[in-house]
Amino acid sequence: MSSPRTFQIQEISAHPGTVPGQGTQRAVQVCKYIDVTTCIGCKACEVACVEWNDHPFRETTFDDTYQTMPSTQWNYWNLIKFAEDERDGNLMWLMRKDQCMHCEDPGCLRACPADGAIIKYENGIVDFQQENCIGCGYCISGCPFDIPKFNEKTKKVYKCTLCSDRVGQGLEPACIKACPTGCLHFGTKEDMVQIAGLRAKQLQEQSGFAAAGVYDPASIGGTHVIYVLHDINNPERYGLPKNPVIPPSYTYWKWIAKPTGLAMAVLGVAAVFLHRVFYGPKLPEPEAPETRTGPSDEIEAGRKETP
Amino acid sequence: MTNGWIDIKNTDMMLIMGGNPAENHPCGFKWPVEAKKTRNAKMIVVDPRFTRTAAVADLFLQIRAGTDIAFLGGLINHAIQNDRFAKDYLINYTNAAFIVKEGFKLPEDGLFSGFDGGAMTYEKSTWNYQEGGNVGPQSSGGQSGAAASSGRASSGTQAGSQPSTPPKGGEAMGGGHQAAGGPGASGQGGPKPPPMLPPNVAYDLSLQHPRSVFQLLKQQYSRYTPEMVERITGIPKDQFLKAADLFTSVRKNGDMKKAATIIYAVGWTQHTSGTQIIRTAAILQLILGNVGRAGGGVNALRGHSNIQGATDMGGVFDIFPGYLKIPQPSDTDLATFLKRTTPTPSKPAEWDSYNYWSNTPKFMVSFLKALYGDSAKKENDFNYHFLPKIDRKFSWTDMWDEMYAGKVKGLFAFGMNGVAIGPNSHKNIEALKKANWLVVCDIYPEETAEFWNSPGISKDDMKKINTTVYRLPGAGFAEKDGTFVNSARWLQWKYAAVPTAGNSKVDQEILARIFLKVRELYQDEGGKFPDPILNLSWAYTTPKNPALAEVAKEINGKALADLTDDTQPGITIKAGQQLPGFAWLRDDGTTACGNWLYSGSWTEAGPMMQRRGTDDPSGLGIYPNWAWSWPANRRVMYNRASCDPSGKPWDMERRQVWWNEAQQKWVGNDVPDFKADSKPADHMGPFIMNPEGVGRIFAPLAAFADGPFPEHYEPVESPIANPLHPQQSINPVAKKFKSDLDKLGTPDQGFNIVCTTYRLTEHYHYWTKNNPMNVQLVPEPFIEVPAQLADEMGITGGEKLKVTSARGIYIAKAMVTKRIKPMMIDGKKTYQIGIPIHWGYRGIAEDEGKTSKMTANQLSPAAIDPNAYTPEFKGFLVKIEKA
Predict the structure, then answer these.
(1) Helix/strand/coil (H/E/C) assignment for every residue in B739-777
(2) How far is residue B353 from each of residues A137, A252, B726, measured CA to CA in Å?
(3) Cβ atoms within 10 Å of A185's Cβ, excluding its own
(4) Alpha-carbon gap, residue B192 to B194, rounded angstroms
């Protein structure tokens, strides 16, 4: 399931022709399972995500909520969303772990015009390759879950990788490892769908949540992050779209807009070539010095950064 | 915990109250979740706020802070009225059948019998059992045994039905231990001997005698009707009944298979009736037959990683390690002290009682040998006279009060932040101004070390403070090895992850170096009483920095001479060897042991506390080879009670221990918490630490300062007069301090909002405000305000609020929430607010000027529980306004 071989690329954004090596092997589909009914909003997953990905500490502000910040950020990929809700006159405090859903039909990838900036592996993980990112931000508008986030400084877009680096080494994603209650699991899509179904059934039969169900929206071919919800008929209560769709412009982009764009790109490259021929190369500007240069005990301080 | 964290997975029903484990014990909370997922266990959460624990509960009830006894008393009443209690268990394993002395009075008017209005204490001689034998209806039929008289066909056992020979030994005198009282209770002494428990208790197994404990219990809580519960707690009657029906459903139709657990934390202890709240829970669990059983028990969740260890090791002023009592001035020699503190059995003559505290002399002498080594000899009472004798209470709040009064001149503050902890932090700051010196050992600059820089102190004021503050460079938890004792009573060894930073030192090095210097001063200069210091055993390889492994071995104890035991033929413990357990302790000076409860944790076989065996043959989560659990590696205490009187498990699927007829002994998946060869027919009680051998529904004599049964009293600051007895609204023996800074507020003065304080998942006490990661998760202090109250006052979230109590003010931003609703308390609309405690005047947000630099405990009152001396941090009165 999680051997490096599962990282056979299945799809590449804006890539002409076929994907190298496609069809040479079959990989198991991976999936993250999130049971919101046993999530206690402890934020261990948030911290694990920041720590594993070596993200800087951010300054946050009090916002009349237990939620750490209003939405995920380019360097804060995992966020518990808190919502006060009512059901039959009883208060409910909904806590949902928000992160990339790793869609089977990824809107970001559909939207991306940069060759190789977004790839989807055979195991279902959708991963951004920042070295190929052109910072156009189309992926942001292509995502039905508002996940990819733009970094003004690097002019690139970032999001949860489903810890592809860990999964490739046979480990579970960092958030899963940190979860104290076991409301998070990681495994094959088949297994996760099965335990989610059993949990939903238990909630229906034992806990009085007749509408409990599994969120794995078919409108985008299912997701590689699935939720068990108390009420599957109203995913909006948890901040999830009922029927997530990729903006139509991006679904036929592949067939119409992309070739056009490609033609434009070819013209652009030609223009650059001509520019170079006539004006010579542009020298790289010197980069700003790294802030993290101090000895090890200063690293923590160096990690603090204003967003 | 009577049980343990993992054992919660075995439960069918959880009452989580006075605790918020999802937020404050998130890792342990996996087990309640496990019980829900694998057993369909139900979870009832009762709390002043809708917490993150409530978010995953099956049923949540919002209660007014400080009214837990009313709720739990209502549950007891419901169980009795609806015949949902464990009859065989109640009769055989509790004192329900015991007859209480004539003259004992229930507190219908708010006072038990014996109240002395002048001294504000109780004279407790009527809080006792009646002397005599079987007074039940069948008693005329001659000598009748336990279960025979119970008239319970359902029990179907022979247990106790044969009159057994009364156990041999000291029967002449009962219960000295219980007569002991707290320190200072019998302060002046006087010739009158304290009352004793009778050795031969009168009983009625039909439970019909009007002065039987059961009938008194029934009468006591018959007043706690659903209507009364609603008036006091604010929980609507229908919701209360729903919870009561659900919780007691484990004993529906006499079923004994199911088990329910009660889980609590400092939301119960931090009240002026805190100990009695826990008592009420214990009574409820006893009548439901849930104590001693897998998935049952009364389970305290400890709020610091080693607070259990601190308590076990005597980190309280009135106990020594292993819960041995500290001598009083009237204990003029060791024999007198041991006589007062060693209980003798008190029970029906036909029953047996192990009375394990009868071993007190062995524990105490071994402790003295560990303290004073070779200098402790039989001839000198093992240096008993070196021990301090306490003539009054030296509790946390008393200590600050005496410092404020100018009597306590200096303070060592290690591993805690006394100003932030409070209560009434302002008083603590004023007290420190009067001290001569203060030593603080911490890893961050904190409020106590910088009390002189607290808000409101001007530069001129500062010049008038003459307290010398010494700051010592302590080490963080990851820089130290040693043990943590968790809530489940496990001693778990941990290893240092990183070396200490800079010049910082581990605690034992700092303490050892101070001790050695003090000893040097005594050697050089003499002094009033140098002997205890000069004779203290300090036989460590590196005296200036003792290895904690050596200390752990010392605590476990060793033989000082070759030991043999008649009950264990063929075994000799050689002099110098580590003891296998506390059963080998001696009162003749041939053993040394730092804490009898921990004996067995580091034996000749090695450090049991370092074991990491992950085998769990029973599947009950016992993991007998993981670390080491006191006492004697038992994972569930009182586990004899998991069997019926005949020694057969109530539930075979969750069987822990049982009587093996062939081997004639108790065996099981867990270590039997019982005399291994005591036959069921002998009817020895499962609660071996009580002189009665049975669980106490009625707690006699000096066991508690404020009554043998719990009674609901209002917090010292309350929005209403106690509906049960308005003329005696609060706990009559709760201690309130009398200094000019110890003011209490009333609703008439405008203090009409109930305030409670608590912790958040994202922070740890007053410490993580220095860590950027935690600060990122919750950046600054806030006050949780009910949405309706905010609407009435025109407050929006994020606006600054000023909270005022009679003692101080606190300013922070408002978090407007639906999670706290207005309540109807005795017909009066009442609001509650909540304040997380984590901030002060040093920290990231504080230093950046983002907070008002105040501590939440400037609001809380120094009024304390008379048994545990815990302050009432929860449920005091405030008023709020826009800042």
Answers:
(1) CCCCCCCCHHHCCCEEEEEECCCCCCCCCHHHCHHHHHH
(2) 78, 84, 42
(3) 18
(4) 6
Q: Greatest CA span in chain A, whole angstroms?
A: 76
pLDDT digits (tens, 9 = 90+) for A185-242: 999 999 999 999 999 999 999 999 999 999 999 999 999 999 999 999 999 999 999 9
H or E element that contains A30: strand A30-35
- Alpha-carbon gap, residue A168 to B593, rounded angstroms: 53
Going along B495-625, which residue ranges are E strands? Answer: 558-559, 563-564, 572-573, 591-592, 602-603, 606-607
Taking the C-alpha atoms of residue B297 and residue B285, their distance in angstroms, rounded to an integer, is 7
Q: Tokens 């140098």 correspond to what residue?
A: B530
Structural element, H or E, at residue A10: strand A9-12
Distance CA B305, CA A222 (A): 43
pLDDT in tens, B660-696: 999 999 999 999 999 999 999 999 999 999 999 999 9
SS3 B618: coil
- Burial class, B788, CB count within 10 angstroms (exposed 0-12 / middle 13-18 / buried 19+): middle
List of chain A residues whose C-beta atoms are within 8 Å of the C-beta of residue B797 = 63-65
Identify which of B526, B654, B572, B694 has the alpha carbon closest to the alpha carbon of residue B146.
Answer: B694
- Alpha-helix residue ranges (DSSP H) falling in chain A: 44-52, 107-111, 138-142, 164-167, 174-178, 189-206, 248-251, 257-279, 299-303
Sequential DSSP letters for B269-329: HSSTTHHHHHHHHHHHHHHTT-TTSTT-SEEEPPSSTTHHHHHHTT-STTEEGGGEEPP-T
Question: CA-CA distance, B642 to B651, in Å (whole number)?
Answer: 8
Residues of A with CB under 8 A from a CB of B: 37-44, 46-47, 50-51, 57-66, 68, 84, 86, 90-95, 180-183, 199, 202, 206-208, 297, 300, 303-304
User: Which residue of A lies nearest to B43 if distances are taken between CA atoms?
Assistant: A207
User: Does residue B581 have a pLDDT over 60?
Assistant: yes
pTM for the model? 0.92
What distance in Å separates the CA atoms of residue B433 and residue B456, rounded to the nearest whole number?
Answer: 14
Can you spell out the DSSP letters for B25-48?
A: STTTTHHHHHHHHHH--EEEEEES
Cα separation, B125 vs B194, in Å, equals 8
> By C-alpha distance, which of B383, B403, B412 is closest to B535?
B383
User: Looking at residues A267-282, what average pLDDT do you find?
Assistant: 71
Mean pLDDT of B786-815: 97
* CB pairs A-B closer than 8 Å: 108
Give me the phi and psi of B298, to 5 degrees please.
Answer: -120, 115
**B27: which chain A residues are within 8 Å (Cβ-Cβ)?**
180
Cβ atoms B656, B636 nearer than 8 A: yes
d(CA B378, CA B370): 14
Contact A162, A147 (CB under 8 A): no
CA B382 to chain centre: 30
Report residue B15 as tokens: 């009452």
Per-residue pLDDT, A303: 46
- Short-list A246, A255, A13, CA closest to A141: A246
**Could you say which of B36, B50, B779 has the minimum Cβ distance to residue A62?**
B779
CB atoms inside a 10 Å sphere around CB A89: 5
Reduced to 3 states, what is the DSSP secondary structure of residue A104?
coil
